[in-house]
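Try this one yourself first.
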């Protein structure tokens, strides 16, 4: 009461600026904190409406998202040219974001959480247990908007030639693996390669995949490197039905990729 709502005029001003500009950068964000949970993961207030009206000008739009948790974007995502989630970037955040926007630095961050299409999908995690059921809903996909480990770059990366040191190991042994990673694009960039494992048949239900390792690799355009991982006994240890730590014999699936859903290389090894 007694507070004048100037949001409509501010949106109109933003639209006029967009019409006079070559590219529009919209900074949007969320309110969060202790005892400040969100029932809706959409951008609060009239921010989505502002993005829609600016995108309707026909000019390219880049949305910068500020916040520390997931945001639903399905209402406006496909109307804009790009989205950068800057999280809480700190004192040097402005310069860092400018470097990415102007192409002086290729983005390389990967999501540490899963972004849903809609809140009704929650909880939504990449390392869920197998259910024996379909994942989809009658009126919505069961897949996330952006999966755990997702993140785009201005360049592209090619994975190839996965080789295992052994195809069979004993419990307690290490397993070394290597593969080739190539920057197949036109710009220098960093790729965060991700190693996932899955126990093919265990005495208790195990996740469909689990992140067990990652590396940040910097490559010039056309450059190729050999990447190595070591699978240790700790990575293969699980709790059995009696809550004892064990390494069970059987087959394990190795998955290497750019995100939890973008798996580029696969291989099977066995513990005897």
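Now uncover the answer:
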């Amino acid at each position: 009461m007694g507070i004048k709502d100037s949001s409509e005029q501010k949106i109109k001003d933003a639209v006029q600026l967009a019409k006079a500009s070559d590219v529009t950068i919209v900074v949007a964000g969320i309110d969060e904190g202790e005892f400040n949970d969100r029932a809706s993961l959409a951008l609060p207030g009239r921010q989505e409406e502002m993005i829609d009206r600016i995108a309707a000008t026909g000019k390219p739009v880049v949305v910068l998202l500020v916040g520390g948790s997931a945001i639903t974007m399905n209402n406006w995502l496909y109307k804009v040219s790009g989205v950068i989630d800057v999280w809480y970037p700190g004192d040097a955040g402005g310069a860092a974001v400018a470097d990415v926007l102007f192409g002086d630095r290729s983005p390389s961050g990967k999501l540490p959480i899963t972004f849903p299409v809609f809140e009704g999908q929650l909880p939504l995690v990449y390392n869920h247990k197998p259910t024996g059921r379909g994942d989809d809903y009658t009126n919505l996909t069961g897949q996330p908007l952006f999966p755990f480990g997702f993140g785009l770059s201005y360049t592209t990366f090619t994975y190839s030639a996965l080789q295992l040191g052994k195809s069979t190991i004993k419990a307690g042994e290490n397993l070394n693996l290597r593969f080739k990673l190539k920057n197949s694009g036109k710009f220098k960039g960093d790729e965060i390669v991700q190693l996932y494992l899955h126990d093919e048949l265990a005495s208790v239900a195990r996740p469909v995949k689990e992140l067990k390792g990652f590396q940040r690799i910097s490559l010039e355009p056309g450059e190729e490197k050999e990447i190595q991982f070591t699978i240790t006994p700790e990575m293969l240890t699980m709790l059995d039905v009696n809550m004892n730590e064990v390494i069970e014999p059987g087959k394990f699936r190795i998955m290497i990729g750019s995100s939890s859903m973008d798996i580029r290389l696969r291989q099977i090894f066995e513990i005897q």
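Discussion: The chain has two domains: 7-105, 157-271. Residues 7-105 form a domain with the Rossmann fold fold (CATH 3.40.50.1700).
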